[in-house]
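Sharing a chain and its predicted structure for anyone who wants a worked example. Both blocks are below, sequence first, tokens second.
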Amino acid sequence: MVVSLGGRRGLLLAALLASCALAVAVATPGEAKVAKGASGAGALDRSFNGDGKLVVNFPRDEVRSTSPQYALPYEFAPGRIAMASAGGGKLVVASSKAIVSYLRNGRPNPRFGGNGAVAIGPIGGSRFQLADIAIDSQGRLLVAGTTKPTSEVGMTGMSVAGPIPSVATIRRYLPDGQLDQGFGKEGVLNTTLGTQPPTFEGKAFEAAAVAVVGLAVDGLDRPLLTGSTVTEVGRCAPSEARYERSRAIVARLNPDGTPDPSFGSGGLQSIGGLSWLGWPIPTATGVLSLGANVDPCPQGGPGNPSVIASLGADGSPNQAFSGTGFWSRPFVRVGDLVVAPSGKLVLLVRTIELSRGEWIESKGKAMRLRPNGSVDTGFGRGGSTDLLLSRGSIGAVAVDAKNRVLLVGQVPVKARKGSKGPRGAQSKLLVMRTTAAGKADLGFGRKGRVTTGFGPRTMVLATEVLAGAKGRIVAGAKISGPRTSTDNAFAIARYLGR
């Protein structure tokens, strides 16, 4: 069936997509840090929406109170927006409420939903929280996340509500925006992925509690999902504060949405010692994923480091990777992970450091591992490259066809001296590129980096970067400011790469 945009919020999105001019933030002079009209690497690609940029205003991601909230160790906050490349240079962007599709030139894709947009239909009494999107080899779009009840829940006879029951929800759409009737039930699959209900203070709870963090599709069009499942709710001693203990999970489905029995146990692999996993990356031998173990009763300190897990085709740990199938370093957190065309892993890492009595994260650096998990000392200096950020931070990493590393983030804008009137807080999108050897790519922008603004008093938070054809770079960021008409807007900029 075709899902139509309904209600005032749906009309808002449809109106924005009907006229791209309404969804585009106008550039300000000199903000791209390259010569006006420049066409070199790092310049905005003006074949995309006329000036290389656009802003889409998604419907607000409403959150109703559910009490008490036993937070999972990792799940995306409401307002998550994901971006993916589709065939023919098209671009797909989704929130928990809607999906939009753009052509190579940045205009709405008229074949998708009739106007370039499709609403994600609600489920009565429940709220869908987006995790990620993926495109398979047939151009079908998969949208995955977690569905939770909007009302308070609890166990009969219990004075305190138990864990919030939740299920994984996966939708698959055809290239024209219609739900794919050959997947799940009429295009939608709601499942606990084979997980068991947790215990609540020693008693079995009535339903499972699952959270989806990551989604990918392998070369056989089998969906891969990562996340966590609640195993136990109890009390921390001696504080008596309640805790929620979770276990990381990886699931693989057949192309029709049924569990793949050749993976793990009935399509599900639970990972002992980890609380969650996300960002699944299909490989020739199985899947890579990034996660961590979270102490349900924290005692202070820096917290546990990130863990990269490598699983084989059957879901068992790939011991050819780092000796055990798991890679970790003390006091190191990995913010993003990507596999280069060379097969090497590129990580966005931050170290946890003690400063004035508080544990803080460093600004980050790019690090490269060999396929077996050992450090690639031929990258940067001893395997990593310092990003030399005096201000701002990096949020995502990608690698292009030439194994050049792409990083996106944001930098604050200083108030101009002598400017009249309040300027207000402002930040710009930052894009950096290194050579395959990890050195600053001096042929890109100015000394390997460019910044792009979206107007005065506008803040951006970079979350996505894609490597496109001909070296093009697509960067995405959450955005707020006077030119955004909702509190759930997303900015996109496309750059020439060469």
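Comments welcome. The helical segments are 7-18.
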